[in-house]
Amino acid sequence: MTPWIVAVFLAFFLGAYALETALALLNLRHVAAHGGAVPPPLAVRLDAQTARRSPAYTLAKGRFALLHGAYDAALTLAVLFSGLLPWLDAAVARALAAQRQRAAAQRWRRTAGAWGER
Prior knowledge:
Elements: H1 3-34, H2 40-43, H3 48-81, H4 84-116
Helix pairs in contact: 1-3
């Protein structure tokens, strides 16, 4: 693979990851600062216990999403640049070639058997 393609891919990949992480952190900061305030239209429909638990749930879910995003990005880069995909491609190609050879041998035996019975 040409180096400029790798550089462009990494730039876009890391840029997207950085943007997603920055937006998640902004959201977490906003919820931490203003999470206890219930918007007036929801005040009549939301009880006090749910209003207290909602920001805590959002913060926990957001922190987990940050960890998951980092793990996902690391795994993606590891799979793409470790050589796993070419190895997997070669293994599947070998398995398919062996299966094609077995199928051809079976067809040959059936054909040869049919000719031998005459």
